[in-house]
């Protein structure tokens, strides 16, 4: 009886391994894009519920570190109630101290907008102005028409936003969603999240549970780091802009600083948005020398945010370079507008986590073998997959 030859290992060449690796990465990217598109389409269909759920998740990530520390000394429910009481106290303090001057500055800015627009028109249309003297008359006329167009555009968007805000404020459902539903859902998330994660891991095969736990841990670290970090960055940038404008005696310093801090929850947006009105107001009220000083101060704030604050607070946890953050924000803005700009960085961080979790398995792939009996070689292959 002839003997059956032993199976011979056929090692893959380096080129074959690279092609296989690139194909797997490409397939992973395509699959992630398809899943993301389906998720965005589903969120668009249930936008109201999605806003509440996403708001509850973000709110939970913000308060959970304080709840976790208090939970080491008291039951979870008491820790949550104590944190909620502190939030209510801080909100009441902000309403009593910050909201009145903000309202006054906003009212003053609205009343002075026509005069500011006329001053900008006169400056740009003046043929003796050295800044635009070399331009042809048609160019000066076009520049003179820009300020009223920008003012009309800002008033239109502000009016639309105010109308939507008033509609939401007077709506019982919107009020309940803002004041009650989001904190209540956050409480349930903090109580039930560990059990849900454990149930999800038990539903997976035993060999996949360590990888799933690692992915969940990395996603939690990325989401929490971005949400809490970007909130802290926004507070720091808003404070820096407010203090700098107060020192430089720029009008509406508090209004511009608070707006910049709130908008800076979208990376790099707050400082840029605060730059334009600050320099414009400094130029129209105190001349170009003052505007140059304000611009230099904002350049320093840009450098402070881009090279010191954001990398130390956010980038270390999210793991995205500034270029990747900007590209993600642009893609998010094109897909979902302002909401997409805010969600773009967490989604990009999640995709990065998934790709990095998939790469080690792709790199450590075993060579191809031609087995004589598949049942005998299946178990070693499974062990090598588990180790990777």
Outline the secondary-structure elements.
Layout: E1 9-10, H1 14-45, H2 47-71, H3 76-97, H4 99-125, H5 137-170, H6 172-202, H7 209-247, H8 253-263, H9 269-286, H10 288-318, H11 322-363, E2 368-369, H12 374-387
Antiparallel strand pairs: 1-2
Helix pairs in contact: 1-11, 2-3, 2-6, 4-5, 7-8, 7-9, 7-10, 7-11, 8-9, 9-10
Describe what you observe in this structure:
- The protein has 12 helices and 2 strands, in the order βαααααααααααβα.
- With 388 residues, the protein is mainly α.
- It has a domain at 221-363.
- It has a two-stranded antiparallel ribbon with strand order 1-2.
- The model is unreliable at 361-388 (pLDDT under 50).
What key attributes describe this structure?
388 residues, mainly alpha, two-stranded antiparallel sheet, 12 helices, 84% helix
The coarse overall form would be globular
Q: Detail the poorly predicted runs.
A: 361-388
Percent strand equals under 5%
Mean of pLDDT: 75
Major sheet strand order:
1-2
Fraction of residues in helices? over 70%
- Cα gyration radius (Å): 28 Å
Number of strands: 2
Which class do the helix and strand fractions yield? mainly alpha
Strand/helix succession: EHHHHHHHHHHHEH
The CA-CA distance between the termini, in Å, is 41 Å
How many DSSP helices? 12
